[in-house]
Design brief:
2 domains; six-stranded antiparallel sheet
Amino acid sequence: MVTCLKIGLTVGLLMFLPLASISEQTFIEMEVKGVGLDPIGQNPVVILRDKEEKKALPIWVGFPEARAIERELTNTPSVRPMTHDLLHSILGRIKVTVKEVRIVELKDQTFYASLFLNSGKELIEVDARPSDAIILALKSKAPVFVSSEILDRKGVGFKEEEASEERYGIRVQQLTSSLASHFNFKGQKGVLVSGVVSGSVSEASGIRMGDIITKIGLKEVENVKDFEETFDALKDAYLIRISIFRDGTSKEVTLSLKP
């Protein structure tokens, strides 16, 4: 009888331990700092950073989700409601709010998230892709949390360094044929904006990640070296006109370098 009782307690403890470890899991609040393209795989990445600015967590996302996150960060509305806009509107109509988002697990190099919804009567937890959950969190001004275990494993030390190819807050990379095809760009010359530094003059001018820069002033930009040298030659200018390709059309952006 005593032996059976011991076995029962042991089994009970073994069943309880995984649940206990999950319930005791700690989470760190993060800020969505921006999106960019990784230089190796040329895939979009959303960057989360803790509020103490000690660690950053990159999460790879799809191009549509990256654009949606970029629109939320820059307060750029869509011409027509996109899927996330529709879902956010539906939640609002049925009086359900997004309480918070948690990045809860990393399995086989895939991040898993939980979306917590408040219906007024109960708190509902919904399994979600991190990209979708982050977009809804941005729309709802809801906090984003990351498991401390994930941050310890995959977080990187955060340093505000200026990339060698950065000019006035614009980070670029070479435009490959595959990237040009993805953005429906038929031109032969240009560089791809892989990121825009928050608070920079370039962000204020309206330049976005995913833009293709074709000209700086009257100079055609063929590669990253052209981009750097042309900007360096215009360092004393007050205004610089930049020709870009975005969403299937060409347009011009004026960059104000000095007050």
